[in-house]
Design a protein that fits this description.
With 264 residues, the chain is of the alpha+beta class. It contains twelve helices and four strands; from the N terminus they run H-H-H-H-H-H-H-H-E-H-E-H-E-E-H-H. It has a four-stranded mixed beta sheet with strand order 2-1-3-4, sandwiched between helices. InterPro entries: Glutaredoxin, Glutaredoxin_subgr, Thioredoxin-like_sf.
Length: 264
């Protein structure tokens, strides 16, 4: 049967035109959405980052970052509140000390495996082989909230009163000893501290399934390669030899007292 040419020409363009209108409408809607959207909208949308980074930003954390002045990295504010605890002002975070705090908090959680955490995706950055991940601040804030004693109030304090936050978390950490169970220097360091009746947290690196990652993080965050590694709050004291020198010079007791290692 012959097909009427005029009928075919009238029907095909009409269907194509309807399809084109739908596509053009969708494209224009996307263009208008991103053109008219607030400047900080993209920072509040779900994001996908590399490695073990989470696929979505926590909505409550994203809301805090968008509402607290100076909490968005790279976005400064012209007028700071008249407060003794000056909030952030667009600085990039986490800083090295803030990373150390989170690392020490994670390392002392029973059965916490660093290999199955955010840290492997951060290692190239911490070791100087890659740039800071774009969403490292969101990841860090989420990790803070997920700590055993973490909550959104701690995240808020981190953003609004970072100096106070660092002091509070540092004091809670006290004295930490990264040790190897078979290492004679580790044993001597622990024996010296026990002899002073000091309180400290021991992390036996060689008995952990995540030893390699743990060791790399100690090197990246503290530039300390050997065991033991003795840390007062977030600052490295050193190894066994450093403890002995400080003790001989009469400084070790004051350091231990300063980090709350002596019972009141």
């Amino acid at each position: 049967m012959d097909i009427d040419i005029k009928e075919r020409r009238a029907w095909v363009p009409h269907a194509l035109w309807r399809r084109r209108k739908l596509i053009l409408g969708a494209v224009l809607a996307c263009i208008l959405f991103f053109w008219l959207a607030p400047a900080n909208l993209l920072d509040r949308m779900p994001v996908i980052t590399g490695g073990a980074s989470r696929a979505f930003v926590d909505a409550e954390i994203a809301d805090l970052v968008s509402r607290i002045p100076g909490a968005s990295p790279g976005v400064t504010v012209s007028h700071q509140p008249n407060d003794a605890h000056v909030p952030r002002n667009g600085e990039f975070y986490p800083t090295k000390d803030e990373l150390r705090i989170l690392f020490l908090e994670h390392a002392r959680i029973p059965n916490y495996n660093l290999d199955e955490s955010i840290w492997p995706s951060w290692l190239p950055w911490l070791e100087g082989q890659a740039q800071r991940p774009k969403y490292a601040h969101y990841d860090y804030l989420t990790e803070l909230r997920n700590l055993p004693n973490g909550d959104i109030r701690d995240v808020r304090q981190f953003l609004e009163k970072p100096v106070f936050w660092r002091v509070r978390h540092g004091r809670a950490l006290g004295l930490t000893v990264f040790s190897k169970s078979y290492c004679p220097y580790s044993r001597q360091a622990k024996s010296l501290l026990h002899g002073k009746n000091a309180k400290f947290t021991v992390i036996e690196a060689d008995l952990r399934p995540d030893y390699e990652t743990l060791h790399r993080l100690i090197i990246a965050l503290y530039s300390h390669r050997t065991f033991p590694g003795v840390i007062a709050e977030v600052s490295l004291i050193g190894g066994y030899d450093s403890l002995v020198r400080l003790d001989e010079d009469g400084h070790l007791d004051s350091i231990l007292r300063g980090v709350g290692a002596f019972n009141a």
